[in-house]
Design brief:
Number of helices: 1
Mean pLDDT: 91
Shape: globular
Distance between the termini: 19 Å
Structural class: mainly beta
Helix content: under 10%
CATH topology: Metal Binding Protein, Guanine Nucleotide Exchange Factor, Chain A
CATH architecture: Beta Complex
Number of domains: 1
Low-confidence stretches: none
CATH class: Mainly Beta
Largest sheet: 7 strands, mixed
Length: 137
Amino acid sequence: MSQMTLKGSCLCGAVHYEVSGDPQKFYHCHCARCRKSSGTGHATNLMLTNAQLVFSQGESLLKRYKIPEAERFTRQFCSHCGSSVARFVPELDAVVVPAGSLDSDAPIKPQARIFWDSRAEWSCDDAALPRFSEYPA
């Protein structure tokens, strides 16, 4: 997929961002951290490479939470409403976008369910998507 620009915002509208890059991966993650962070059965994230992230409004309201022992897990969110927003992940050299924070449809469809083996038994199931025990190769 070629370079594109996506816009997103938080629930209360105080934080707005634009990310430009190449959409590469779009996963439903069922790990315990994503479930706790989202309050749902999985988190759905879009990853863009060769990406630039700019906050056009509300950057001073952003808070981050990183689990100290986690290699990659960090959550960036609006301090007013708690909504997750896009974040740069240096370990991946990519921008990770919580798909629900986008202001329009994602440019690609979900590609896989990851950390499937640690899913909650009540979580949704989509047999049409590949499943991986951890990160795909």
